TrEMBL record:
Biological processes annotated in GO: mRNA export from nucleus
GO cellular component: THO complex part of transcription export complex
Name of the molecule in the record: THO complex subunit 1
Source organism of the structure: Schistocephalus solidus (Tapeworm)
Pfam families the record matches: efThoc1
Source organism phylogeny: Eukaryota, Metazoa, Spiralia, Lophotrochozoa, Platyhelminthes
InterPro entries given in the database record: THO_THOC1
Amino acid sequence: MADDFDLCFKAVKNLLNDSGGLTLVKLKSISESLAIKDKKSVIDLAFRDQMLDLLSINSTDSMKVLLKMSVAAAVADICSAATPFLLFADLFNTKPISDAEENFHFMEQTITALKDVSLFGPGRNVLLRMCNDLLRRLSKSQNTVFCGRIQLFLTRLFPLDEKSGLNLMSNFNTQKEISYSKEPDESLFQSLINYKAEPTEGAAKPLSDLKVNAQLYQKFWSLQEFLRTPSLCYTKEGWAGFTECAQCVIDTFCSIKIMNAVDSERRWHSSGTKFTIYLTSEKLLDLQLMDTNFRRYILVQLLIIFQYLTAQVKFKSPTQALDESQSKWVKSRRDEILKLLDGALDSDLAGGTPISPSFAVVNHILERETHWNRWKNEGCPSFIRTLEKSSLPMRKRRTNPLIDRSGNKLFRFGNRELDKLWSLAPDNLEACKDKKRLFRPDLYEHFRDAILELDPKEKVEEQYKSINREEWTWRSLRLLSRRCSFFYTNWNPPGRPIKDYLSVILTEKLHPEVNFFPQSVRRFDLPLPGNTTDT
C-alpha cells in the first residue's frame, strides 16, 4: 500500500515539476489513472511539497503557475478545497514583509474564484488565520495602506455577520499603551499664544497666553488610559479621574481660537497628515494643541467614550451604569464638544456659520455606531429578511380572454354573433369541410313565399317582396347554383339587375317545372308551357 502511494505521489510530483507543460487536463488525466482510493490526499501532498521546493529556490514565476493550478484544481474537484489556501499560507509564512504586498495582490486576483460557499468553507479558517498573522507582522504606522487592503479583502470574502469580526463581547484593545512621562520636566514646556482673527481685518491679534505646564501634560495624556479602557470610568476613583482630565482638556480646547470655521474646514480637507500614533514628548504638546486636526481627534474620542458610557450594551455588568448626575455631566460635556467641533463657540461666527461637512460626518459615524450596537444587542440577526406572508386576500388568477378552459383559442370580432359563429370549432377550416355542414334547404321551402309574392292576386307591395332583399337574393343564388340547372341560363343582354334575373327564374323556369313543387302549389294563373303535365 505504501509503495502504491509513493508511486502515485511521484507521478503527480513529476507533472507539477513541469511548469511549462502543466495543464488542468493533464492533471485530471493523471488523477483518474491513480490506483488508490484517496486520490485527493496524494495530490494535496504533492502540491505542498512542490511549493516548498519552489520556495527554497525562490522561483516566483513557477510559484504563481502552481498557485493558479491549485485554484483551478480545487474548482474542478481534483484536489481539496483547502489546498490553495494552505499554499498561500506557506507562501506568506516563508516570505519577508517586503514581498508580502506583491504576493497579496496576486492572491486577491487568484483566490476570488473560490468565493463559492462549497469551496470557501473548508479554507476560511486557514485564510483568516493567515491574514491575522500577516496583520501582526505588519506595522500599523508604516504599513497603514497595506493593513487596510487586508481588512477590505476579508470584508469582501466574509459576510457582514461573520462572528470573527464582530467583537460580540465588546472587548477593548488594552494592549495598545501610550507611554508618556509620569514626572515631566517643567522647564521643557512653553506657553501657547492664543490668536483670534478679526472678521474685517486680515491680521491676527494675540488674545492671551495659554500656559502649557506639567499638570496639563499629565492630565492630557492620562486621559488616554480611560479612552483605552472605558470600564475604569464606572468605579468611583476612575470616574473622578476621568471627569477631572476630560474637563481640563475641554476647557483647554475652548480657550484656543486659532482660526475661523472656514479656514479650519479648509485645513481639515487639505491636510494629508494622519496621526497613526501619538508623540508624547513634553516639547511637542504646545505644537499639538495648536493643530486643529489633533484637537478634533481628541474631541471625537471623547464623543465615542461618552456614547459608550451611556449606551445599553448587552455584555455590561449591572454595576456598569451611570447615575443621574453622571449622565447629566456627560450630556453637558457632549454638547460643549459638539459646539467645539462645529466651530460655533466663536460669537462672531456662530450666527451665520452652517454646519461643517466634517461635523456632519462625525454625527453620522456616531449614529451608525448606535445602530451597530443595537444590532449586536439583538443577537446579530441576519440582514437577509424573510418574506412575510401577505395579509391581502389572494387575487383570483386572471384567465386569458382568448383561451377557453380547455386551452382552445378564442376569437374576438367585436360582435357577439360573429364571436359565437367563429368559436364554434377549434379549427374553422376543418369544420367547414365536415359533411354535417353540407346542408341545402328544399327549393320549395325557400322559394314558396317569393313565388306567392310575385302573384298579382296577392297584391304584395314592391318594397316588401323577398327579391328586393339583398341577403335573400344572395342565398337564393347560392342555392340555385347547387340545386337547379336553370341557374346557368343564357342571359341576354348581360348586366341586368339580379332582381330581374330571379323574377324570370321564379316565374318562367321554376314555376312551370311542376316537378319542383307539390300539387297544392300549382294553382297560379301563370302561363304554362303547353306540353307540361302533372306528376
